[in-house]
């Protein structure tokens, strides 16, 4: 390319970029200016990538804007580091291709990799997972499944006002990232959709907060995996779904622990479990400690309070003692109804009993009209109870 052509190309590009200052003072980069089409059919992946590269190289704070419309996007990684802060402002909707193989085996649909000072604001995303779930259910050879939003090695991230539909597997995954705030998100997938965790956290710290969100999905509303630290979960509506869980832990011999987790002011509706710690029945160096579950309402929940160190679905474990050490777990002010008699279950490992379990002000009644009492089950669990605890503590 001649020098003149290069220069005019750059000039054109500069024109395409709306060099308009947005109210926040950020430079705005509209994906449509980079060739994206909001018609729901045209593949806009490359246009999004070009807009990202331009915004990410901005010396000033940048805003990558997605206007109204439906934009078809394939698997894409938005890579950092960027030169300044970057806001992904979505007014329209991003959809994945219908073909379940189109997202390939990458494991993600929309990934942010090594990006700092990132905010993802508003917008709707739909991964169209139904074809993938059906492939899984029929036991065909399916691709590995894509996380809808994947934050990988990111720092100082805000996700606010996003709505996610029908992820293939997890809706939002936070992995190896620090200081992440998730606010006001809405997550939706059918109750029977397999492995569609709402928000999954792994090897992440700083402070992770997940607040003011509604999660209806086919697996855990929130799952805090190995290496999750300093996590604050507040004002969550969970259900349908499996639970708000710590785990599954202990699938690996060597893995990071989970500590300093608070789940508060949340409501569970018709979920399989309420708050849960689960560990595979196998040796591991993992641990979970300093966990507080408080001010929770259970409405017709299968197992409102449960620690299960003998977790082994489909016999995918050697049925050995869990090596995960569980201690200092508080359950306080948890009220409502249980849809099974087992309102409280503490099934801990015989080689690593749970200790420091605290129960305070618990009232969980059986939903069954026959009004049988709820029960508490303990196995290798130690701790104390105070206030009114119903069913009666077995610790
Ligand atoms: C988290 O990151 C690690 C290392 O990059 C990777 O092996 C693992 O599969 C990731 N997990 C998720 C849930 O993204
Ligand atoms: C525990 O986590 C909270 C956030 O939930 C954080 O503010 C606090 O600093 C953490 N405490 C320690 C000792 O790291």
TrEMBL record:
Q: Which domain of life is it from?
A: Eukaryota
Q: Which region is the signal sequence?
A: 1-28
Q: Where can this protein be found? A: Secreted, Cell wall
What SUPFAM superfamilies does the database record attribute to this sequence?
Pectin lyase-like
* A Pfam family that the UniProt record links to this protein: Glyco_hydro_28
Would the keyword Signal be found if you checked this record's keyword annotation?
yes
Q: What GO terms in the biological process aspect are recorded for it?
A: cell wall organization
Keywords from UniProt, A to Z, are: Cell wall, Cell wall biogenesis/degradation, Glycosidase, Hydrolase, Secreted, Signal
Record-stated family: Belongs to the glycosyl hydrolase 28 family.
Q: What is this protein called?
A: Pectin lyase-like superfamily protein
From the broadest rank down, the organism's phylogenetic lineage runs: Eukaryota, Viridiplantae, Streptophyta, Embryophyta, Tracheophyta
């Amino acid at each position: 390319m001649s020098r003149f052509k290069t220069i005019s190309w750059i000039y054109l590009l500069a024109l395409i970029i709306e060099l308009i200052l947005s109210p926040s003072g950020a430079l705005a980069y509209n994906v449509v200016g980079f060739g994206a089409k909001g018609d729901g059919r045209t593949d806009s992946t490359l246009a999004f990538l070009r807009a990202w590269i331009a915004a990410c190289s901005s010396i000033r704070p940048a805003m990558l804007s997605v206007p109204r419309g439906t934009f078809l996007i394939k698997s894409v990684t938005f890579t950092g580091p960027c030169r300044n802060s970057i806001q992904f402002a979505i007014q329209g909707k991003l959809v994945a291709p219908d073909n379940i193989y189109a997202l390939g085996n990458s494991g993600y649909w929309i990934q942010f990799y090594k990006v700092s000072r990132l905010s993802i604001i508003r917008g709707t995303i739909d991964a169209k997972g139904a074809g993938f779930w059906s492939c899984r259910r029929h036991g065909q050879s399916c691709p590995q499944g894509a996380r809808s939003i994947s934050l990988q090695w990111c720092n100082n991230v805000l996700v606010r006002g996003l709505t996610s539909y029908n992820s293939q597997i997890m809706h939002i995954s936070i992995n190896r990232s620090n200081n992440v705030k998730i606010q006001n998100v809405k997550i939706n997938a059918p109750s029977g959709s397999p492995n569609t965790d709402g928000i999954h956290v792994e090897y992440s710290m700083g402070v992770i907060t997940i607040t003011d969100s509604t999660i209806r999905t086919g697996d855990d509303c929130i799952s805090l995996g190995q290496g999750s630290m300093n996590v604050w979960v507040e004002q969550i509506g969970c259900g349908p779904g499996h639970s708000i869980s710590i785990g599954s832990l202990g699938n690996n011999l060597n893995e990071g622990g989970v500590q300093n987790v608070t789940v508060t002011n949340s409501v569970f509706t018709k979920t399989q479990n309420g708050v849960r710690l689960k560990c595979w029945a196998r040796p591991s160096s993992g641990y979970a400690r300093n966990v507080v579950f408080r001010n929770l309402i259970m409405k017709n929940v299968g197992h409102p309070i449960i620690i299960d160190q003998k977790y082994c679905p489909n016999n995918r474990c050697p049925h050995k003692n869990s090596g995960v050490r569980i201690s200092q777990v508080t359950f306080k002010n948890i009220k409502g109804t249980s849809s099974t008699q087992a309102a409280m279950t503490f099934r801990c490992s015989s080689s690593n009993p749970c200790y420091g379990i605290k129960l305070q002000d618990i009232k969980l009644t059986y939903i069954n009209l026959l009004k049988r009492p709820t029960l508490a089950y303990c196995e290798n669990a130690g701790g104390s109870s105070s206030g009114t605890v119903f069913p009666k503590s077995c610790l």
